[in-house]
Fold this protein.
Amino acid sequence: MVALPELPTPALVLSLEVLERNLATMSAARPGSRLRPHVKAHKCLGIARRQVEAGHHSFTCATPLEVVGMARAGVGSDLLLANETVDSHRLAAMAAAERESGITVTVAVDSTVTVDLAAAAGLRHVLIDVNVGLPRCGCAPEEARSLAERAQAAGLTVRGVMGYEGHLMTVPEEDKPRKVKACMSSLVEAFDSLVDVTGEECRIISAGGTGTYHVFDNDDPVLGRINEVQAGSYALMDSSYGAQPLPFEQALYVVGTAVSTTSRDSGSWAVIDVGLKSLGMDHGNPYIDEATVWFCSDEHTTFSMNDGSLPAIGERVAVRPAHIDPTIALHADIHVVPRWGEEVTEVWPVELRHW
Amino acid sequence: MVALPELPTPALVLSLEVLERNLATMSAARPGSRLRPHVKAHKCLGIARRQVEAGHHSFTCATPLEVVGMARAGVGSDLLLANETVDSHRLAAMAAAERESGITVTVAVDSTVTVDLAAAAGLRHVLIDVNVGLPRCGCAPEEARSLAERAQAAGLTVRGVMGYEGHLMTVPEEDKPRKVKACMSSLVEAFDSLVDVTGEECRIISAGGTGTYHVFDNDDPVLGRINEVQAGSYALMDSSYGAQPLPFEQALYVVGTAVSTTSRDSGSWAVIDVGLKSLGMDHGNPYIDEATVWFCSDEHTTFSMNDGSLPAIGERVAVRPAHIDPTIALHADIHVVPRWGEEVTEVWPVELRHW
């Protein structure tokens, strides 16, 4: 047990109570296999195990290391690498992890090269990754069938399709269902174009994220066809998703220590030991409650309290990251408190960092 | 020996030839103790050892872990923690590292709290950190003497003063000497105000960085008094410093692999496996030669070649980070090539990550 004032900083601190509440909210909305939690957001087996306890057994991974790490730890029973890789050694490592663990490993493919490399590496299952509007990976919907045929011919089982409407995660709520539906129409069409190639093992239509998980209305002829959602950030949240009307709370902060304060007639500021090297900065500056963040440096954030007060030197300050995924990637451990205000009872390593 | 096309990506790749040229250029301008290279930029003992070979024995560190790591490895003979810390365990760890290694450890202090904690932890040397205009750490110049007196009374040796004009690193060249001189006037005054407190061991006036190292003209009555510069980025460079007229070259790229390409009438793009989790993003998007970067995702960068061509899937692509320091903090290793185009001959761990 470590009291927060004794914790070396900067440190990731997680409220187990809030985590469990976020997991319960999501698993009520999308129980079991209807959610394929994305481990890229947390890269932490301790959190993935809680997602298993919440009823989810299929997981989404962003890197081969995440797949291999989950398989070796025996977390989940169905792992999807939702990105393409052309690294033969890593493809083979995932195939070996599948054989050794008995856990199903599926990889996304979007080109003849990725299909052929997956087959050559001894992998057995693929999803056809379809571009649904975000200019990133994924084949054109009309190419999905020919890729499925090539995969089938190479001995791979095509389990279905996936598409990520990442460009729609933060559009206004009133526009979201319509815009997501337009993307999903092409994904569903791609699925329908190839389902006869592979038969009954072809069942998955995978899409979505924390910003869109709630629009996949079961009664809609298109949106209801999406049978799994790849949400990850919902478990921990960040200021970017927190600005949206989502029923999840911030479960993880970066805790820092005030190391320097300056009081001047022209203005006062404080400096904590949380900076660029402990925060993902692609979504901009982090937030501090009741304070204004001035700027971040490598190891520091300079801020002022809105009421003109200053923290005492040595006082702990909680920072809400703008983007949780790259924030966690900078840390080796997550410090777990049962609930806010209590002592650290567990340390969960961020085992799935790197690639 | 690993050929670049066999290297697992994303990977940091360093040209030893360019590194050595950057080090030689800097050590010609500021030889020996006139440079106190900042290890925070690279966090890598392999690079610090090359800086020792270039004639520098005093180093600047940003975190206690950097100080302890350098001391335990026996790199350098004079280590400065140029930030304040109020973590008693880490202060004690630095004091122990000093005793065990015989390497001098000095810490920055800017308040009575930091002075008292340094003394209590068994540290022996401090620099008074003076605020010279950047709203971050550092005492007011007029407080420097009383802090020196307190340090002296607590048994600490005050070795001098430091101040970081970080807000001036990228101002236009024509304004730089004048603006830096204005900041340094207050630092020199602070030094002169306290030099009699501590006597002959008080000699250091430390400041500067890669963006200002060249303005500390020896013949200037103020700028010539700065007897050591804390530059770090010069060794490796990034696009932010690269935009300035500095005589250093990019020595380190993040190398990725093209994993997906899309060709459409409306435009073509490629995706590489270098994203937010392998790039510091606080200075914005990275650069790719002869290409336009569209955006970065967690594990991807989407870009288009300016000539309309597309890389082959599997082709390696070199990415120039916008900010080198937080980029390196995301990686476990640096892959060293003797010169661009050659095979990887060494792997240098980034030993000094975290805090």
User: Anything to note?
Assistant: The mean pLDDT of chain A is 96. Chain A is about 30% helix and 20% strand. Chain A has two domains: 4-10+247-349, 16-237.
